[in-house]
Design a protein that fits this description.
The protein is mainly β and 486 residues long. The protein has helices spanning 2-9, 12-15, 24-31, 39-43, 151-158, 165-176, 379-388; strands at 71-88, 91-112, 120-134, 137-145, 180-182, 190-192, 200-223, 227-249, 258-285, 288-295, 299-314, 318-323, 327-328, 332-335, 339-347, 352-362, 367-370, 391-403, 406-415, 428-438, 442-457, 468-485. The N and C termini lie far apart (77 Å).
Length: 486
């Protein structure tokens, strides 16, 4: 009977390229953006919508480059530390990962208008790159599941009515590893080979790496003494990889059935996209500024590569390992939601400032589409997004105090959960601080930022979906060097 499955598996390379396992959580990798950028921007938790005057500020409000009085270039380096603590059926485990990269680089060029009859005072052109999301994380989750085994994952596909594409791959792997066996019953063709009795020890390791970057080409202008306008054309680049290893064992019957299984999945998602931004800043009164900005949805074209393997030990059939060749899925589309941002800031002359940004984004507007089969291909997934996702707001506060050539900064950040059910992902809270020194035409800035969030991590999107409770804490240190010139 195994030979029958092996013969059928020859068809997988044709069919599997048409479908893969995606979830609403996958879309959040690209729909959510973190506070990244220059050290000054990070130290004030990104509250720059009404301030401008920073290369990363144009990512919040494109009018911000018109605030510059001189041209400049700059870059930033960041050290990332992520710490994830997981609880699974009473067992706790922690893991952490450190990484380092050049997370920001760009320049702005300011052109004064010397025509005394024109109300357009100056123009600015800027180009800036920000790593808007760093995907470097490690997770280690283990514990004893009292009732559910990994067999439910494979049976869900094997008895799900579809014997093509991704479902066929999972059926093949589960069958070859003796997780499931044929029944001879067409109504329920497969049954579990895992000994009954519960108390399945499960161990899950996951490593994620990569980035979601945004390169902005910006144009802005100052009109009169009070108004600033700006526009961005954004190119998005992403490269994300995930390696996940799931292990399960049991001692229910040492003489029969599956004794242990290890199931490995390696996924790489890469692609690019485009979005637009427009914004304005107005000087309402002496020292008081207001800003409003809109970022369109981001239209992304993504590609997935998947490599799967499975190892096992069966009481009757011994041990073994099977793998599938790398599957390259067809390009698919993802539209992330747009975002509105309103901002206020008050500047105390040369002594300092305070600033607040409020943003709103409707995550239920995330939408997947096929490049060849139409949007109906992802109809179930898009309906899941509408059923589970919600409108979320973000509040960012920032302050700066200046003393001679020194600047001292602090910030606070609060972001609501994108889910209707906060248990799936909780609210995010964070704070930041930093300092800077102005050498004249050169400025050095340092920042520390921290944020934490609780969320549920599931081993699989279907079948074995018992969640582990994870608390993620992130510590980042950023240094920026900026050079001004006329």
């Amino acid at each position: 009977m195994k030979k029958y499955i092996l013969g059928f598996a020859a068809l997988l390379a044709v069919s599997a390229a048409q479908a893969q396992e995606l979830s609403s959580a996958d879309g959040l990798l690209y729909a959510q953006d973190n506070v990244t950028g220059t050290a000054r921007f990070r130290a004030m938790s990104g509250a720059f919508g009404a301030l401008g005057g920073d290369l990363s500020a144009i990512g919040v409000n494109p009018a911000g480059s018109a605030i510059f009085n001189s041209s400049l270039v700059g870059f930033s380096l960041t050290s990332y530390n992520s710490r994830n603590k997981a609880n699974y059926f009473g067992s706790s485990n922690s893991d952490n990962y450190n990484s380092f990269d050049v997370n920001q680089a760009g320049g702005a060029f300011v052109f004064d208008n010397y025509n005394p009859d024109s109300k357009w005072k100056k123009f600015a052109i800027a180009v800036n790159y920000d790593n808007v999301n760093n995907f470097d994380n490690d997770y280690h989750i283990n514990g004893t599941n009292p009732t559910n085994s990994v067999d439910s994952y494979f049976l869900g596909y094997a008895n799900g009515g579809s014997m093509s594409g991704f479902a066929a791959d999972q059926t093949y792997l589960g069958y070859q590893a003796f997780v499931i066996n044929e029944t001879g019953n067409n109504a329920v063709p497969y049954a579990s080979n895992v000994p009954a009795g519960g108390n399945y020890y499960q161990d899950f390791l996951m490593e994620t790496r990569g980035y979601n970057g945004k390169a902005s080409v910006n144009a802005s202008a100052q009109y009169g003494e009070r108004w600033f306008f700006g526009l961005n054309v954004n190119a998005h680049f992403s490269d994300y990889s995930k390696w996940a290893s799931f292990y399960e064992s049991n001692n229910n019957d040492p003489a029969a059935g599956l004794q242990w299984v290890e199931f490995n999945n390696e996924v790489r998602t890469f692609g690019s996209g485009v979005s637009l931004q427009a914004g304005t800043i107005v000087k309402v009164a002496a020292g008081l500024r207001a800003g409003v900005a809109y970022e369109t949805p981001t239209w992304l074209w993504l590609n997935d590569d998947l490599l799967q393997s499975i190892s096992y030990s069966d009481a009757t059939n011994g041990s073994g390992r099977f793998s599938l060749p790398v599957t390259e899925y067809e390009t698919y589309k993802l539209r992330t939601p747009g975002k509105w941002t309103g901002s206020l800031a008050y500047i105390f002359g040369t002594h300092g400032l305070i600033s607040v940004d409020y943003s709103i984004k409707d995550y239920s507007n995330m939408h997947y589409g096929s490049t060849s089969s139409g949007d109906n291909f992802y109809a179930d997934l898009n309906q899941e997004i509408k059923n589970t996702m919600d409108v979320a707001s973000t509040l960012r506060l920032g302050a700066e105090v200046r003393a001679a050539k020194w600047s001292f900064r602090g910030g606070y950040r609060y972001e609501q959960s994108p889910y209707k059910d906060d248990a799936a992902m909780g609210d995010l809270t964070g704070f930041s601080g930093g300092l800077g020194y102005n050498f004249g035409r050169t400025r050095l800035d340092l920042a520390y930022s921290y944020w934490e969030r609780d969320f549920q991590q599931r081993f699989f999107a279907t079948g074995l979906t018992d969640p582990s409770e994870v608390t993620s804490r992130n510590h980042n240190v950023t240094a920026s060097l900026t050079f001004e010139f006329k």
